[in-house]
Amino acid sequence: MKNSIISIVNAKGGVGKSTATCNLGIALSRQNKNVLVIDLDPQANTTSILIPPNINCPNTFYEYINKSAPIEKCIYPTFEKNLWCLPNVSEANNLEPDLIKKQNFEGIRKSRSFLKKTYNFILCDCPPNMGTWVMTALFGSDFVIIPNLANSTFSIDGLLKAIKLIEQIKQKENPSLKFLRLLINQVDKRKSISKFNIAQIFQYFPKNKVFETMIPTNAPFETAEAHRTTIFQEAPASNGCKAYRCLAKEIISILEDKKNRNDQTEE
Ligand SMILES: Nc1ncnc2c1ncn2[C@@H]1O[C@H](COP(=O)(O)OP(=O)(O)OP(=O)(O)O)[C@@H](O)[C@H]1O
Ligand SMILES: [Mg+2]
Q: Which residues surround ligand 2, an ion (CB under 5 A)?
């Protein structure tokens, strides 16, 4: 299997990008994959979940972008054996105006060869917009996963914005960028809004652009967040946790199968 850089993107907030990044990171690492999570969101939610509070991080995404700290000096172990994290801090917000002025979105792309040599999966958690950090992630990525809420019609708007940006970047700056799949999150099959939105999604997307694994609405996701941890620690037997285990296996099988990789990952 070729090592892959995957961005988790949606212009809408609260659709489950960070939850997906953290839990998928753990699930993939438990499939014996070496995984790095890069937190490109200055809200730093993913950082606060993956990096134990007793670990001091002198170099973060801020130092990497602003002071050209070597990327390997900005990566820290997490509580999981094969899972690493490049943390973020709120100060990274201050770097945006200058990067926009210089149209410099090379932050991930410049380290692609190191990243792809060192990790099987590099997951980039993005902020809820289509700005500097999302551009930076997409310039350097192989694939994009878009989480989308089954229980909110508005998240389809954020999803369509993300698809448009992927298309633009694919045409100009990163021709090898591919939209991997949509991840339908917070599915509650008892609710008609879930059924309605899922039907809507399949009007826009063919089946091979949507993960077969859907993530159910599950209370332990919220309690895990309150405890600044993941559902793998909070409730390993829960349906939400099972779903992320399935999702990791689905992604590995999509990317491991060469024929599949070529056919199914093409736009
Ligand atoms: N399947 C789920 N069931 C129940 N709650 C969930 C589920 N997935 C995510 N959540 C909860 O939804 C909220 C938003 O999730 P998350 O922070 O991952 O979204 P986000 O897209 O990263 O948000 P932002 O755009 O602000 O970065 C969190 O409280 C999280 O615990
Ligand atoms: Mg987030």
A: 17-18, 45
Residue, of 34 and 261, whose pLDDT is higher: 34
Residues in the chain: 267
Q: 178-185 and 121-125 as β-strands: parallel, antiparallel, unpaired? A: unpaired
Residue among 7, 19, 232 to mutate when testing ligand 1 (max atoms within 8 A of CB): 19
Domains of the chain in start order, with CATH, are 4-265 (3.40.50.300)
Q: Among the listed ranges 22-31, 103-112, 256-265, which one has the minimum average pLDDT value?
A: 256-265
pTM above the 0.85 mark?
Answer: yes
Ligand 1 atom nearest 147 alpha carbon: 21
The binding-site residues of ligand 1, defined as CB within 6 angstroms of any ligand atom, are 13-19, 41, 43, 45, 128, 185-186, 215, 217-218, 221-222, 225, 240
Instruction: Confirm if 84 and 76 have CB atoms less than 8 A apart.
Output: yes
Instruction: Name the E strands within the chain.
Output: 4-8, 35-39, 76-77, 83-86, 121-125, 143-149, 178-185
Q: For the stretch 210-243, what's the b/e string if a residue is b when 16 or more beta carbons lie within 10 angstroms of its beta carbon?
A: bbebbbbbbebbeebbeeebbbbbbbeebebbbb
Closest ligand to Cα 186: 1
